[in-house]
## 1
Amino acid sequence: MRYATREIRLASALVEAADTLVEGFEAIRYLQRVCDHCVELLDARAAGVMLIDGGRSVSLAAGSRHEQVALDLLEAQHGGGPCLDSYGSGEPVPPVSIRVAHADARWPDFTERALRHDIVTTFAVPLRRREHLLGALNVFVPTLPDTTPADGVTSELHVAQALADAAALGLQNRGAYAQYRDLSGQLQAALSSRVRIEQAKGMLAERWSVRTDEAFMALRQYARRHRLPLDQVARAVVEGVADDAELRREGGTRADGPA
């Protein structure tokens, strides 16, 4: 029953991790929530995510439980640690005894700090989407791993990797969504600008009894002379606040019609 319950909780966590296409999304808060799920599902003391770009840490996030412990242990990995090893290889770092690693001088700064925080075991999994690596998820456990068949080390790594994969997918989807939304906004702005310019051309052509290309020339000449965006001049015409006499001079027209 315990493992069935964990499977349900894991499924719920994975669904939540996929929900990134929302207003007000914040990457750090999102990763903190992923870490919270990791702590709950794996009975860990703390968990954290290190986002890495070009081999260097660019951002840290930790779950709400023992957040400062996790952040401290992530920061201690500047000289090496589970996160950098997992990111460098693209593979999980299986559970490691902190005392054994410290005795072997493996990650000395990290293991020394981990011992001070009473961390007994640590492991890490890569945060990746296909071949694209974003960083690593690091789990800090206060006990030695239970390697019984029902709850083996492989199972713990699989749970952590599933959460890390879901987080990477969520972040990638959010990035793509933001990029397309920005592009959509730019296209909409360009379309709106074009519509205003066409509207201004038509209004001036009708008012001056000239061709639309002559009206457009007046708009463009005025914009160039005053170093203004063409769309800004067109908006002024549409809103009825443009200097009509000066626009006429730019187009070579008189008040009673074409010159």
## 2
Amino acid sequence: MKKVMLLAAGLFLAISTFAQQATDKTVKKIEVTGSAEIEITPDEIYLNISLREYLKNKTKVDITTLENQLVKAVAGAGLPKESLTIENVNGYNYEIQRKKKDPSEFMARKQYRLKLTKLDKINTILSAVDAEGIESTNIASFSSSKMDEYRKEAKIKALKAAKVKAEYMVAALGNSIEGILEIQEIPTDNFSDVRPMYANAMYKGAVESDSAAADLDVKTIKVRAEVRTVFQIK
């Protein structure tokens, strides 16, 4: 029994000594962050279009008529049917206080989202819709069909930037890095967009010419990535 107890005590002492030695051997490391940005030209443009009913010579031009014009214009521009979706439907009444409502005075509105690849088709489409029925338009956002690829590329560049930073920092002290210990992705907005001139232009009455639309320049959007890294120092 005493032999067993002595053996257990010796084993415990050996483990404790080994653990102490492992603790005393501190790993030298450096923690740095890396970031990268990629500028790309968007090929997905999302346009908000708001149509509203109105009175023309005391006759209401209904929302169905306006919608059919828009759908036909989108098809005529060579865009797929699914590029146009309904975002919202609402309405208003001119004589809200009257007890007896006149159905012709209730004016419906519909908001649509149109997906485009270029700005040059905007005026072609809007010019085919009754101008009085177009309440407003604005560009909602820009994106790219290859956004996942661009995000991956930005993350790789951010990681490489972190490695370069770690290398020259430890090299200044006469050391070098041995390997990576930790990698943590830092959440970012992924990309930011800069909207072109006229992005929030109101289209009422007359619609601008197609040549004016062709002059609109879609500015680049920036895809950003950032990472936190920990490298081991030799």
